[in-house]
Amino acid sequence: MLNSRTSASRLAEASPDRADFAEAWTRTCRRLRAELGEDIYNSWFGRLELDGVREGVAHLSVPTRFLKSWIQSHYTDKILATLSAEADSIRAITVDVRSSMRPNAARTVVQDASASVTIERASSYAEDVSRPVAEVARPLRPAPQNDADGLSSSPLDRRMTFASFLVGSSNQLAHAAGQRVATAPAGEPLIYNPLYIHSAVGLGKTHLLQAIAHAAGEAGRRVIYLTAEKFMYRFVCALKAQTSLAFKEKMRGIDVLVIDDVQFLQGKSIQNEFCHTLNALIDAGRQVIIAADRPPSELESLEERVRSRLAGGLCVEMGALDEPLRLKILESRIAAAKVAQPGFDVPAPVAAYVARAIETNGRDLDGAVSRLLARATLTGAVLTVEMAEDAIRDLVRTREPKRVKIEDIQKLVATHYNVSRADILSSRRTATVVRPRQIAMYLAKVLTLRSLPEIGRRFGGRDHTTVLHAVRKIEGLAGKDGTLSEEIELLKRMLVD
Description:
CATH superfamily of the largest domain: P-loop containing nucleotide triphosphate hydrolases
Number of domains: 4
Distance between the termini: 48 Å
Number of strands: 10
Structural class: alpha/beta
Largest sheet: 5 strands, mixed
CATH architecture of the largest domain: 3-Layer(aba) Sandwich
Number of helices: 23
Radius of gyration: 26 Å
Strand order of the largest sheet: 1-2-3-4-5
Shape: globular
């Protein structure tokens, strides 16, 4: 197995009365492996060890500062919830670096059962300029909450501000709306509430949300920034610790709530609490900002009343980056790279080629700069368009084709045949609805990787045999009816192109 067994057996041998904690740690590791998968578990938990348990605090350790920082930023809630479920006497965890466990070493996040965070640092940032960004990220400035209430904001990346956010035609409206809600004077009526921002990955919505949180915090407003995952874990931990009432009261006492990746919100009780929180904050005139990867109407994992509430404010899409904006982003990344490598230079024709060739998102542009930097610094050659073409070939070639979503199929088919999407999802059996429904099911089967049962569920909870019948029906009709065949091909092109 991994270090979970080694550290557990060592703990049990060191003190027989700790055998229960050793077994609990082994079970915890087993559960984490099953829930997160082999790859994630081996990457982040393979070298995580339990060193001891004292006064309800489990002391964990890892060999590197990077692992410590990453686990602090992403998995402390998960580890605590899983470990406390196996050993209910454990109320908190600490994570230390094994190679630097000394009295004055920088201590780490302590996550207690109500999901509060305490940070003790003995060394300053100046002592270690190589500290990962996740670790030097600061908490929101206005944080008067008590740690015991289970309500503390996730750290913000100090680089993600409005000053560093690059604006283009695709994100101009979202940027303007974000600035407006972040700098709104106290007491002024909230026009855009909730503000809902959605986009595909890598287009800057997290940057914009953190910029809003920074600006609102600097204006003296009480701000909480959380991902949907953090919100879920903290609510669950509050339930476990029987502090849910304090959690709810404190959540409703803030000025600005910022929630990222709301598409990952799961669980009926958590969604109920989230909806109640939204209603309470909005009714009290407090600002709510939400981000997701799709519009509210397409968040089918959320209950209808949550989707309705989210759609009731200003809903803004951040579209694909156009070429001028991609060039601006690329130039800013190159300028940042020059700080570390003053000799690094990218000629204008090379930058223009990269901005034109990479059409996906900002993360691929980051990858392109890394590849160009490696070519320039490791070979000493002057970058040319030909070198750039070779360096970023994988980023251009591996660009995924447009992924067709079942919701898009339903909308397009409904529009094409002059029915509503609700009709397609309904149980109506009239000919004007049945045929479009069967065509939509057929297209979902041939254009997506969804299984028949999943397609049936997305079409109003139908059985997989209904979907199979529809697919076979349309295949048979399209083979005989040339007009129907042409209509289906047209719909395919409109969905794929």
